[in-house]
Write a structure and sequence with these properties.
This protein has 835 residues and is α/β, with parallel strands linked by helices. Among the domains are: 39-188, Ferritin, CATH 1.20.1260.30; 655-760. Helices cover 49% and strands 11% of the residues. A hairpin with a 5-residue loop joins β17 (627-632) and β18. The longest helix is centred in the last third of the chain and has 42 residues, at 763-804. It is globular.
Length: 835
């Protein structure tokens, strides 16, 4: 754990306050950490690890309330305290600064409740705030005081200054809140994770309901009847061209409080969040009718068995169940019907529901038939299993569009169940999966084994069953074994034609690999061991690789110009959206290579490295300033771990400006490795019981020299061979020591040269190092990896086919007969008879 006040709570990885290592000449390290913008990834992980440390035995679903409330209080104190006519009121004496003053006091929990929470809650219509004086959760006496004191300290870090938080969705706070929510949902387990809709699913819904391309105004309304923590509402709001009006209702009191805070944290303080049961007591009404909205989105509880509590569906005053009454123990369609009733005649919406709603019978089948005949359902998107925190079952998105209902003759279906990655105990949609779903749905693209526009007529022939496998065969086709090929030999032509995409790019390559056997069959023209070489060295394939490299270079030049034009104050989220979409579009028409795979490489690199770099540039401009690395030992002492620069790593400076020195170091390292290997080989060869080192109690330089002195003293000529061996061993060890010392000296010298060079870097040089040598070079390597996979895939398939049909049945039979004869001969020689 690091200890560098005032950054203790977030355990910073770097600190400039310690002197340089003794082996280096002192060099000033500028821009102290405590005034430098903290990396987003470091902030998130540090917040989570610090909070998790303090949690103790409390359930995450309860502890989240305390952490998120403190984050909320810190935000509104920074942004709205002492601001006239602010949308959020921070009463005097109730700011985060006032809470800090309570640290370590005996009655800290009670004082937080009365002096901080109560005034803020009353002034801003917040209810069901957590009890900071609850001894059952926070402990009693000193334990409670220490826990709350440490919890407050987490949010004192100077990097957590939200006074300049932007309203364009590019704020560090909103993302930190989402990060904590995701982790709390993961930790809360199956029964308590429903307060959070995975951000990836929320983004899909936000981008397919049409709000992004619509002409929105402040009067445009978005409603979520089961809003949870509000994340889905906010994702839809982010997609709108202008600020819109948000409405949400949540049954759980504590979660509705989270939603209210979440909207404030995301600069949507005017959002209307109500608490109550949406089905039995809808809070948004116009007189005796439900209020209607332009957009409605929801992630209701799956298969709610108590949906009708407090409600008589047959006499519903809001006429929501005219298309049918859902089963008493399956409330999925109750929420969907509520959504449809809450939409304006031109409204659009989407609802996340379990797959069962697509095919279950009886009352649900009747509702499904009526919905289809009304034309309300625009599309269905099947999602992978185990995405959601409250359940592991697969779900789907049902897309509603009233505007086109009367003219609807078909429904667009997507089976995206196989596009995901494992993320701990859950599955998660990757950036490529999200983009592919959105592109396919919005453009109504029919993709084999993925998407189809299915007519209502076809659905009616299937008794209005919407189960996706009835309409989209997403299964990987079975690899057929050709019996004729196994009997008579030869590779079936139909197997080679399955590689048609490769032959379109390299038509001559097919002839280079295969020759005619008989009708419908071919033979491998080259030896199996030569398949890879034949592919890689074929002129058409090398030309294809060259063209693909040039294709990437075209994009790289354009991207480099954009990236080098960045300056302080730019918006990283807008940057990556434009950059990634441009890369995806650039590869759309490229043969063989999957454009979404290339897109994912950029998004992965953005997540791990480039995002932090861009936020650093947005905060401080193009500054490359090394920071000292320190760590605190268990004994309380500090240990110097050298220095580092996140934006421009030392390796980049060395590669561009000190390549000669690095080459010398690499040479020394290789020599050292060879010397160490020679010593190890010698010790292994002569270290056995009868080896020349056997007389030594321990093989070491000291023991070897001692033995050499004994041999000299004894004057034993018979030990000459042993002496020479020991002498050779000493020379090797001494040479290794010299090499190790020289390597350390050269390394320290290079380290110092690189450190001193940072102060000489111009902004243009920094841009070259970061954009060309770091970002685009990394992405180029990733794209090259995709090209390697293309060639490897072709090589593997050709080898597989060649091996499969290498020996036809007659050859195998003959071979078995020959082996049987050999066995019989051996048995007869041994005196056995095989009958």
């Amino acid at each position: 754990m690091l200890n560098c006040s005032p950054c203790t709570a977030l355990k910073p990885a770097i600190c400039p306050k310690l002197p340089s290592r003794p082996s280096l000449a002192p060099a000033p390290l500028r821009n102290p950490l405590c005034t430098m913008a903290l990396k987003k990834s470091s902030l998130y992980s540090s917040l989570w690890s610090s909070c998790d440390e303090l949690r103790g035995g409390m359930d995450a679903s309860q502890y989240k309330d305390y952490v998120l409330v403190l984050l909320f209080l810190k935000y509104i104190s920074d942004k709205y305290a002492n601001v006239p006519y602010a949308p959020i009121e921070v009463p005097k004496g109730s700011s985060f600064k006032d809470m800090v003053a309570l640290k370590g006091t005996k009655d800290i929990g009670d004082d937080i409740n009365k002096k901080i929470i109560a005034p803020i809650a009353q002034a801003n219509r917040l209810s069901d705030m957590p009890d900071f004086n609850d001894s059952t959760k926070l402990g009693s006496g000193k334990e409670k005081v220490d826990r709350l004191t440490n919890l407050i300290a987490i949010f004192e870090n100077k990097s957590l200054d939200f006074s300049k938080n932007r309203a364009d969705g590019d704020d560090i706070l909103g993302d930190a809140y989402e990060y904590l929510m995701r982790h709390f949902a993961t930790e809360s387990g199956k029964s308590k994770g429903q307060f959070y809709t995975p951000a990836e699913v929320s983004r899909i819904i936000a981008q397919i309901i049409g709000i992004k391309t619509a002409k929105t105004t402040g009067s445009t309304t978005v409603y979520d009847p089961t809003c949870g923590s509000g994340s889905l509402l906010l994702k839809v709001s982010d997609e709108a061209q202008t600020p819109v009006t948000l409405y949400g209702q949540e049954k759980d009191a504590a979660t509705s409080g989270l939603a209210r805070m979440n909207t404030i944290l995301h600069n949507m303080p005017t959002a209307l969040i109500e608490q109550g049961n949406t089905l039995s007591n809808p809070r948004f009404v116009d007189g005796s009718s439900l209020k209607t909205f332009d957009y409605v989105v929801a992630n209701p509880p799956f298969s709610d068995k108590r949906w009708s509590t407090g409600l008589d569906p047959a006499s519903d005053p809001h006429a929501r169940f005219t298309l049918g009454i859902p089963p008493a123990k399956q409330g999925d369609y109750a929420y969907l019907l509520h959504i449809i009733r809450s939409l304006k005649s031109t409204g659009q919406g989407a609802c996340i529901l379990p797959h069962g709603v697509l095919f279950r019978g009886n009352a649900e089948a009747e509702i499904r038939k009526n919905l289809l005949r009304k034309g309300y359902i625009k599309g269905i998107i099947g999602l992978p299993a185990n995405l959601f925190y409250g359940t592991g079952i697969p779900a789907c998105i049902v897309v509603i569009d009233k505007k086109e209902a009367n003219r609807r003759q078909a429904i667009f279906m997507i089976d995206a169940s196989s596009g995901y990655m494992k993320d701990g105990p859950k599955n998660r949609l990757r950036a490529r999966d999200i983009h592919k779903i959105v592109d396919t749905f919005n453009q109504q693209l029919e993709v084999p084994k993925y998407s189809r526009l299915v007519t209502i007529e076809e659905i009616e022939k299937n008794d209005f069953n919407l189960n996706l496998p009835r309409y989209i065969d997403s299964q990987t086709p079975e690899d057929i074994q050709n019996i004729d090929g196994h009997l008579k030999g030869g590779i079936p032509v139909e197997d080679t034609t399955s590689l048609e995409p490769y032959w379109k790019v390299c038509p001559g390559l097919q002839k280079a690999l295969f020759k005619k056997n008989r009708t419908g069959f071919v033979d491998l023209r080259v030896e199996p061991a030569e398949i890879k070489t034949t592919i890689y060295q074929h002129p058409e394939f090398t030309q294809f690789i060259t063209q693909m490299n040039q294709h990437f270079d075209t994009w790289r030049q354009k991207a480099a110009k954009t990236l080098k034009a960045l300056d302080a104050g730019h918006h990283p989220k807008q940057l990556i959206a434009k950059l990634a979409d441009g890369l995806l579009e650039h590869y759309q028409a490229s043969p063989l290579i999957d454009p979404y795979a290339v897109y994912q490489h950029l998004m992965d690199y953005w997540e791990t490295t480039m995002q932090d770099d861009c936020y650093s540039i947005a905060a401080d401009g193009w500054k490359a300033e090394p920071q000292r690395l320190v760590e605190q030992t268990k004994a309380g002492k500090t240990k110097d771990r050298g220095w580092a620069c996140d934006l421009v790593p030392k390796s980049l400076v060395v590669a561009r400006y000190f390549a000669k020195q690095q080459a010398e170091i690499d040479s020394l390292a290789a020599m050292l490795e060879a010397a160490s290997a020679a010593i190890a080989e010698m010790e292994e060869e002569h270290g056995g019981e009868e080896g020349l080192f056997a007389a030594l109690e321990k093989i070491s330089l000291a023991s070897v020299k001692a033995r050499m002195k004994e041999i000299v003293a004894e004057g034993d000529t018979l030990s000459r061979e042993e002496f020479e061996l020991l002498e050779k061993y000493c020379a090797l060890v001494q040479g290794e020591t010299t090499l190790r010392r020289d390597l350390a000296t050269k390394t320290d010298e290079l380290d110092q040269l690189a450190l001193e060079h940072y102060a000489k870097l111009t902004p243009a040089e920094i841009k070259t190092l970061v954009v060309d040598d770091k970002w685009l070079a990394t992405l180029a390597a990733a794209v090259q990896g995709e090209m390697d996979r293309i060639s490897q895939s072709l090589t593997s398939r050709v080898k597989e086919l060649a091996e499969r049909y290498r020996e036809p049945l007659p050859q195998l039979t003959l071979r078995c007969q020959q082996l049987e004869a050999q066995v019989n001969t051996h048995l007869e020689r041994m005196g056995f008879s095989w009958q």
